[in-house]
Amino acid sequence: MSNENDPHVFHMLHIAHAELFRAADRLMKAREGIATAHQVILFTLAAENGLASAEVARRCGHSKSRLTNLVDTLEAKSLVERRHADADKRIQNLFITPKGRALVKRVSSMTRRLNAQLLEPFSESERDAIRSFLAHVVKEAASI
């Protein structure tokens, strides 16, 4: 049973997300000229190159139109290439370029440092609880 002293989870997640990504975007734009939304696309393609754009949008949590705008920027910076699928020319597959892979390598270490910095004040059992809570949020979000 909850009471009014319980944390306001939706509100706190919203504020935490906004603050964290505002700071990360500032850092990414200053260092690499892209936002974290671009970084997510690059990380997705680095893990599995040549995905259909609709699949990249789904995995990254973007609408297809939002993905188009983000990929336009990545393509203009020679970080990603679009290619029509052989079987169906209506489908565009996305490929990370060598320049995009180099960026992923650079920002991966930065991302690891930021994660470590966020988790540093917590004990290992608290870190496990944080991981468990966030996994629970991801799993349960679809049923809300």
Question: In brief, what are we looking at here?
Answer:
The protein is mainly α.
- Look at the helices and sheets and give the structural class: mainly alpha
Unreliable stretches: none
SSE order, as H and E? HHEHHEEHH
Total helices: the number is 6
Give the overall form: globular
* Count of beta strands: 3
Using brief descriptors, characterize the structure shown.
single chain; 144 residues; mainly alpha; Arc Repressor Mutant, subunit A; 6 helices; globular
What does this structure look like?
By secondary structure, the chain is mostly helical. The chain has a domain at 35-110: Winged helix-like DNA-binding domain superfamily/Winged helix DNA-binding domain (Arc Repressor Mutant, subunit A, Orthogonal Bundle). It has helices at residues 9-32, 36-47, 53-60, 64-76, 98-119, 124-141, and strands at 51-52, 80-84, 92-96. Strands 1-3-2 form a three-stranded antiparallel β-sheet. Strand 2 and strand 3 form a beta hairpin. Helix 2 (36-47) packs across helix 5. The model has no long low-confidence stretch (mean pLDDT 92).
